[in-house]
What we know:
The chain is an alpha+beta fold. It is 41% helix and 13% strand. The chain is built from nine helices and seven strands. The protein has helices spanning 2-8, 16-34, 92-101, 118-121, 145-149, 160-170, 190-212, 222-232, 235-248, and strands at 43-47, 54-58, 71-75, 107-111, 142-143, 175-178, 182-187. Bound molecules: zinc ion (ZN).
Amino acid sequence: MTDQIARIDVPVAREPAIAHAIRELVIGNRILAHQGVLDAFGHVSVRHPANPERYLMPCSRGPALVVADDIIEYALDGTPIDQRGRPQYSERAIHGAIYLARPDVNAVVHNHSPAVIPFGVTGTVLRPIFHLGSVMGPDIPIWDITDKFGDGTDLLVIRNDVGASLARTLGGGRVVLMRGHGSAVAGRRLKEAVFIAVYMQLNAQLQLASTQLGGATKFLSPAEVARASAILLEPLGQERAWQTWSHAAGFTDV
Ligand SMILES: [Zn+2]
């Protein structure tokens, strides 16, 4: 899709590593929109490749429409470094708080995937039900904003203390559900975070379908989760998925 590629080209003045990160971030946004994980809302960020105290995230725009010129550099407290008048996502605190708490995390996806929402509100636990779902990890915590901030919030993670609370519940894991809202996914790389977000959504769909069939659903055991996720979290599989999904999203040169 030549027109699309041209539109995500970044200025040549950018350092190559930053230009690469921006281009990948644009593609990651488009993939997650195409896969239905993100719609008009939700967002993706990456830690700045040259400065771990900053991160890169689009301005306030639907992820399917993001281009390179939309990417804003942020301090971890959510302060924009180069806003240039562009509107911002309100829930920046999700990203900064996770980067602050987790030096191993270099990409964050916040999404409102409809398939996942029921597992944050019913008491039915989201669990790995097939090998690709193992990347979520064995135990998936649920963060309920009312636990610390009471009833009557707007459910959004706008303040940094709210973000810090969410990051604490995420702990050392890769996924945290947000009751009545969505989820946050943390990856060591952008491709890993995208991979986990896509398969978390599919796992939720398959878990719902399986339990509707009746009988005793057999989930992956903790040992199976550990072995399967160790393989799937290697870059090889993630590259294959990234190429497939980016091609499907219109990036035929990836
Ligand atoms: Zn949200």
